[in-house]
């Protein structure tokens, strides 16, 4: 068993694996601690809690916009990932809300990436999860975003942008390929202030980094975007330049009772010097 885990857990030091065995940290499906000298059986399940990475605390609160028996809708801050992944475990919206609201079965109905702030919905219990997640899978939830970017010639907008976007696991940036489109966004310039524009973005598909790519594609990359059009190295503890992209609105007919729902972010984008639009 020890040799199998040495080979399998390539990112864990062998000494740490030995410590875990000594502490009974590896167990079988019945919760019985596994012995380091036992033979490994093909297909055997091994359960353990991985060590948490050193995380930079995200010093921003999650504001609850709405809560009932089935859903929780929050106004996520910038820099907070939706779910545990990579270097972000404890300081994620899911883990923080499970603890703060005492809802152990809380789960996201959809996701926002770490850089994007705004309206994010969770289900409170497992029994509701599929019905609300299907709203997003089936594109029955309407979403609108606001973004600050260089002001374009108003004659060029509104625009409908289509492209083929692909994202490779382990690669930071998504790519646009010369293939039939699999993504579509509507982009509207709603106000200007000097060289900046405030844009309303409506995605009709949900590809990774879709709005960021489409804004860069039309020559208006979103302010403070470290990925597009060029990749920039930004320290994870640097909270001084948030991506100027906000999930501003979420609307749908409730899949349980059929009632129309609409939630609006109370946040605004700091780089925008003009008047903030009324929802």
Describe this structure in words.
There is one protein chain. The chain is of the alpha+beta class and 279 residues long. It folds into two domains: 1-51, no CATH class; 63-264, Pseudouridine synthase, CATH 3.30.2350.10. The chain is 16% helix and 26% strand. It is built from five helices and eleven strands; from the N terminus they run ααββαββαβββββαββ. Strands 1, 2, 3, 4, 5, 6, 7, 8, 9, 10 and 11 form an eleven-stranded mixed beta sheet that branches. Strand 6 (159-166) and strand 7 form a beta hairpin. The radius of gyration is 22 Å and the shape is globular. The model has no long low-confidence stretch (mean pLDDT 93).
Q: What's the topology here?
A:
Layout: H1 2-8, H2 14-22, E1 63-67, E2 71-76, H3 93-101, E3 107-108, E4 117-123, H4 126-137, E5 142-150, E6 159-166, E7 175-177, E8 183-193, E9 196-203, H5 210-217, E10 245-253, E11 260-264
Parallel strand pairs: 4-10
Antiparallel strand pairs: 1-2, 2-4, 3-4, 5-9, 5-10, 6-7, 6-8, 8-9, 10-11
Beta-strand segment tally:
11
What do we call the CATH homologous superfamily of the largest domain?
A: Pseudouridine synthase
Integer tally of domains: 2
Low-confidence stretches: none
| Count of runs of 4 or more consecutive helical residues | 5
The rounded Rg comes to 22 Å
Beta-strand portion reads: 25-35%
Tell me the CATH architecture of the largest domain: 2-Layer Sandwich
Give the termini distance in whole angstroms: 59 Å
CATH class call of the largest domain:
Alpha Beta
Order of helix and strand elements from N to C terminus: HHEEHEEHEEEEEHEE
Largest sheet: 11 strands, mixed
